[in-house]
Amino acid sequence: MRRYPGTLLFEPGSVLTKNGDPYKVFTPFWRACRVATPPKAPLARPDAIAWQEPPDAGDTLDDWQLRPSKPDWAAGWGEHWEPGSAGAHRRLQRFLEEAIDRYAEDRDRPDRDGTSRLSPHLHAGDISPRTVWDAAQRVAGGHGAAAKAVDKFLAELGWREFSYQLLSFFPTLGAKNFKADFDAFPWADDKDGLAAWQTGRTGYPLVDAGLRELWATGYMHNRVRMVTASFLTKHLRVHWREGEAWFWDTLVDADMANNCAGWQWVAGSGADAAPYFRIFNPVAQGEKFDPDGAYVRHWIPELAQLPDKYLNKPWEAPAHILEAAGVVLGRDYPAPIVEHKAARQAALDAYGEITGKR
Ligand SMILES: Cc1cc2nc3c(=O)[nH]c(=O)nc-3n(C[C@H](O)[C@H](O)[C@H](O)COP(=O)(O)OP(=O)(O)OC[C@H]3O[C@@H](n4cnc5c(N)ncnc54)[C@H](O)[C@@H]3O)c2cc1C
User: Fold this and answer.
1) pLDDT at position 227, please?
2) What is the pLDDT of residues 70-106, one digit of tens each?
3) In angstroms, what is the span from residue 258 Cα to ligand 1's centroid?
4) Residue 129 CA: which ligand 1 atom is closest?
5) Are 191 and 308 in a shared domain?
6) Given 144, 169, 194, which residue is the final one in a domain?
7) Domain membership of residue 84 as a residue range
8) Where is the Photolyase/cryptochrome alpha/beta domain positioned along the sequence (predicted)?
């Protein structure tokens, strides 16, 4: 196989453990990357390119009718994305000017425009990670206060490097559990649960907001990706491959390495994964990371009039509060499809079956 470096900052195999093995844990991997030879600065744009004239005009892209029409499921995407190199560079510039200083705090807030949203551009090659790395380093060099935020941002690019490295050395990452013990995990065959999750009708507002954001824009905030993935694989115990397949079909940044590494990380079956028993509480996550409820209210307008106190747990709202907010649970918005504590316990019991600690 011949490689043409450009997709990554560090080619797979260029940063290995002392024994010459691939890293399976992120922190030492990234530490080693940070002391390795830094990525080369991006080349300047050429003044001109001597294109070969095509033999004949051929088809235009429109001739191929690749855009969805029946239905046009990408109708709203134009508001959110500007595909191509110019759009990618504008996005990077805006992020560096307006958000990178607060990245360390804001990156976990789905209600804020606090991350770069470069993922589809990095995936499609609209912009190279070397360009992003170089531009971010310049910000860090420019004023000291930003250095911590820039480091955090570079570490996220580092997770991308780590995922690609894993996929390169373990090419079955998209199909098989990285940790073989998970092969015996008693996943549930819950088609109704999966459909409720896919369509944003689980009755848990943060989870539903994320899935609706995904459907409408092709994107979901990273914090919410973790919460929704945890809900599917733990509260519903549906196999991570089902969620991975849904994200693959719907994400504008769908990327084999990042997606399967992300799903296996959340499910607990991956390299350096979150332990399976770390089960996100979707109510607490909503209250913590969307404290004013702006994200949930945007994506679930039927709950917009609920007071903050009940926004992430409408089933606890007294009847008069639901009535004042114009919400009838089960009619305007679903009742929760599982009860958090019971689902959590069932997930832990299932995990006990593969660890022998029931
Ligand atoms: C279950 C799950 C599935 C995911 N699927 C994908 C996917 O298909 N494609 C994808 O690009 N990312 C995926 N991610 C990672 C992450 O959610 C997105 O990269 C991030 O939300 C993109 O937003 P951003 O560009 O604003 O990120 P920023 O916070 O601005 O980060 C900058 C860049 O770093 C990279 N990055 C950030 N976080 C991660 C991460 N956790 N893992 C790997 N790379 C990261 C991305 O290329 C991103 O554009 C997934 C995460 C989870 C938990």
Assistant:
1) 98
2) 888 888 888 899 999 999 999 999 999 999 999 999 9
3) 7
4) 47
5) yes
6) 169
7) 26-44+74-169
8) 4-37
